[in-house]
Design brief:
- 14% of the residues lie in helices and 29% in strands.
- The protein is an alpha+beta fold.
- Strands 1, 2, 3, 4, 5, 6, 7, 8 and 9 form a nine-stranded antiparallel β-sheet that branches.
- The structure holds a DNA duplex (13 and 13 nucleotides).
Length: 195
DNA sequence: GGTAGGATGGGCT
DNA sequence: GCCCATCCTACCC
């Protein structure tokens, strides 16, 4: 990962929507595995009924209310784990769900951990898939992603990239602003592709 | 190409 | 006791 550097805490110290959009195209790294983030979703605070933080500060959601640049990992459906990155200033809730990555490094390891994936496009094209592929678990709850084994990197010179905003997956609230961000045209996103 | 149903455990009312 | 920010398999066009 030459030509890139770890994103500083200030990157995350902004509103969740801006951080979610900004994370598309960045490189998520865990140990020997890495991938380009191609799909994210922003989750806001109290007014956002889809967000875990809207139910208030609990043992599980505590990290979402804390300082930015930390991992919020939670168990879903008793089986899968989802990785979020905490945004917003300390004391203000908000986070970004990482929904899909394009595998870049450590692909053999990813394949071992994801035997059900037959094509490379299916290795990490979903929030539960990418945590399996990368080996991210609830052990990473609260981990500082500005240092350590789980980080996000940005290329020194980033190619221009087109980002599409859509409704978040699984929520049909019509008044919801589009808070899902995908790299337009990527084959590695979850669900329907954009053209 | 498509969708229905089950797996499975923790968080919260 | 109910509800999930999901994924895979089986089965059906």
């Amino acid at each position: 990962m030459r030509q890139s550097r770890v994103l500083a805490r200030s990157f995350y110290d902004r509103d969740s929507e801006t951080v979610a959009r900004g994370l598309v195209g960045k490189i998520l790294v865990h140990e020997r595995t890495a991938g380009r983030i191609v799909e994210t979703e922003a989750y806001l605070g109290m007014g956002d009924l889809a967000a875990h933080a809207s139910h208030g500060l609990t043992a599980r959601t505590r990290v979402i209310f804390g300082p930015p640049g930390h991992a919020y990992v939670y168990l879903i459906y008793g089986i899968y784990e989802c990785l979020n990155l905490v945004a917003e200033p300390d004391g203000t809730p908000g986070c970004v769900l990482i929904r899909a990555i394009e595998p870049l490094a450590g692909i053999e390891g990813m394949r071992r951990r994801r035997p059900a994936a037959r094509r490379i496009e299916d290795l990490a094209s979903g929030p539960g898939k990418l945590t399996l592929a990368l080996g991210v678990t609830r052990r990473h709850y609260g981990a500082d992603v500005t240092r350590g084994s789980l980080t996000v990197r940005g290329l020194k010179s980033e190619p221009a990239l087109e980002i599409a905003a859509t409704a978040r997956i699984g929520f049909t609230d019509p008044v919801d602003r589009p808070l899902r961000f995908v790299e337009r045209g990527s084959r590695f996103v979850s669900g329907p592709r954009t053209s």
